[in-house]
Amino acid sequence: MNEQSYSYEALQNQKKFYDSRFQAGYMQDFSGLFESCRFYAMKDILKQIKSSGFNPATILDYGCGEGRYLNLLKDYFPTSALHGCDISDEALTIAKNIYSSAQYTPMSDETVNLPDNSFDLIISIEVLEHVGDVAQSITEIGRLLKPQGMTILSTPCANKFSFEWWQNRLTGGLQPSFDGYGRFKTDEPGHLRRLCDRHLKSLCSDVGIDIYKIYHRAHLFETLAPKGRLFKRIPQACVGFGMLDWYLFKNFPNGSTMIALGKKR
């Protein structure tokens, strides 16, 4: 591997790795530019789903972390029963304090001790790049999802010609991953892989989920947007500039992050 590679602890003992991270404040600052842009993109997706008439009775956030998206889900689906699961007990403790009315279940590696066909909607936001066995994670999502249920899967994207792909291609940063998918040198150590669109579609199809739409976030304007002191002074303007990636390029395949919408057969 090149100089910045994935953490072997993240692969070998994920619970210990992420408990330690959440104890140190991992993902608790949700106000930064990249997180804010992701959050607004998710709001756009949920608004679209709600306007289609889909009204899930039960929702699971698979890999919910500290539970930030559960609050957002409640905004759009106030009558839905919400459930979160995560491998980190520390993350679930934080989540219970942030959103106490959801139900929470600890994960064992990629699996969750919940019945088959339990949920009408399952979201998994920036999780598939972290798990030890991505095929097992998607199998578990397929098991937990009801027939005709929907899923939203967001994960870093390895499609060619994105801003981040060029950045790593020109600097020798396209790395192999332990499971053959590959990753970028600029990825943080907890990111074990990046998937292309075709990888995600194939993995989902194998468990009975048809991906019918994939949006992409390019990260170009997000990278160029002001940060630091200026971001703190005019955060909404900076986020608005960063969101140009979403509004201009979400239907193009060369994005650095994908948000896939799927339906179980």
Task: Name the features.
265 residues, alpha/beta, Rossmann fold, 8-stranded mixed beta sheet, two-stranded antiparallel ribbon, 12 helices, 10 strands, 40% helix, globular
Q: In words, what does this structure look like?
A:
- There is one protein chain.
- The chain is built from 12 helices and 10 strands.
- The protein has helices at residues 8-12, 14-23, 33-51, 68-76, 89-98, 134-144, 163-169, 197-205, 220-224, 228-233, 235-242, 244-249, and strands spanning 58-62, 81-86, 103-108, 111-112, 119-125, 145-156, 174-175, 183-184, 209-217, 257-264.
- It is α/β, with parallel strands linked by helices and 265 residues long.
- Helix 3 runs parallel beside helix 4 and helix 3 (33-51) crosses helix 11 (235-242).
- It has an 8-stranded mixed sheet with strand order 4-3-2-1-5-6-10-9, sandwiched between helices.
- It has a single domain (8-264), classed as 3-Layer(aba) Sandwich (Rossmann fold).
- It starts with 7 loop residues before the first helix and ends with a strand.
- 40% of the residues lie in helices and 22% in strands.
- It is globular and about 45 Å long.
- Keywords: Methyltransferase, Transferase.
- This is Class I SAM-dependent methyltransferase.
